[in-house]
Amino acid sequence: MPLTSLDETPLRQIFFGGQNFGAIDSQNGIPHFTLQCHQWILSRTGQWPRFHDLDIHDPGYDENNTECSSAPVMSAPLNQNDKVVLPDQHILAFLLRTFMDSELSLIFPLVDSVLIEETARMAYAVNSHEYISARACMFAFLSMVGTRFPDIKAASEINSDACAAEAQLALSELLHHASITNLQTMIMLLLHEMLRGRVNTASMYHALACRTVFTLKGHTCIPPTHYNLTRKENENRHLRMLFWMCYVLDKDIALRTGQPPVIDDQFCNLTLPANYMETVFVDGNKVTKGQRTPWFPGDLRLSLLKSKTTCDLYSHAALIKTDAELLKTIRVLDEELESWRISIPEELRPGLSVQKRANLDTMSSFKSMIHIELSLNYYFLLNTIHAASGRFKVNEDGNRSGRKCRFGVQSSLDLSAEASRSTLRYLSTVASRLYMETFWVFCFYPTSALMTLFFNILHDPHHDFATDDVELLCGASNVLQSMPIRRVTPRETMYLKRMDILVRELSELSRLAMARQMTKVK
Hints:
By secondary structure, the chain is mainly alpha-helical. It has helices spanning about 35-45, 65-70, 90-100, 105, 115-120, 130-150, 155, 160-170, 180-195, 200-215, 230-255, 275-280, 300-315, 325-345, 365-385, 410-430, 440, 445-460, 465-480, 490-520, and strands spanning about 15, 20-25, 30-35.
């Protein structure tokens, strides 16, 4: 059934030509469309859309339980008498060293090499007052490495979901006490839920983590810049890294869910980490260990721009901007995004558009990973900025021009469409190179690209790129299917089924619109 009202926030809503056509469900990533949208599609194609087919339901899959349950589904059912225990101490120490020596520790600076050793010891000291907190942190850590290092026997034997459930249970007793150890646990559980596609649950852990980092003053503290640190200085430096992790995730979660960000930039010290610009794009093995600045997911400067985009274009206050104010904001953000793009080293710099398959074969695994993250973030943010022009409708000026004005600001709509093309082309190149556990992180990108291209085709079926755009729509299912998945559950299966139905329907409607236009021309 078409939507009669929208509960989604403006950031998740689909605007085109000044009309609200629907929303992308933050829970399952599937678009839902308004009656007004259905009627507009009918007027452009001559066929009533069959989006009701997206409501398929698998009796073996309960979407609400999968998303909203506080405890993840166990990968291997446990008997009531089974007790989840930490591995032998030397195995945990080995896994910690493996993580800290990997590039993953630079992307996710979740632990400090000095502080985590003490936490690991406390996790086995039953009589320690830090025992419960340290144990929860180690279980949360194991919930992550169990999927990331499958080639290591000790990691492959870990039941990640059982470890996460144990950490969650312990954390419920620790919420009254703000500590770096508990903050690490919250962020690790947040990432565990994100990688399982449970964004709503992840956002709850994220809120806890942000409130904890505020309590610890991580949002304002000034970290030391030298390297011979006291314990307190080490804690402050690591706390600052955890703040930046919360900040990056905060801006991503806001864009993905449409919910307001938890972190208000005006209350934070947003000075970048020392030497960030000098080392952020340098291979990890070229920087002295202990002096490496974490990369974080993407680029901190891009996260700052994401925050500005969310606030300036999609907040409640932004919705009451005049057309002139909205257009000015779009132009300013576009200029800032372009300044960021050209500041990236040429080898890693996202192209303005992707006209052919990108060649990453000559890059190291590090540079390949960074290139993928930067490119997809760039195209998504470019689309997000210019898609706001869909709220802008130019009035018809029949007295002066004698013709109908196009919806929105055409140059902005063109940039949004080109960013969407680049997203799908680029993903078709790199999909098979993605880490298996990141499926739910990256499958988010094609949806907004699909909707932008679809409405662009229906608005002008005769434009120069219409035929190529239909081909991109048709190939989107193959792109999603080619993305590796570590463990296929009913959630992934149902998502791929729905997306396949959506892609087929969008492709058919696009062809009908083009055929109808050709008939009119003749």
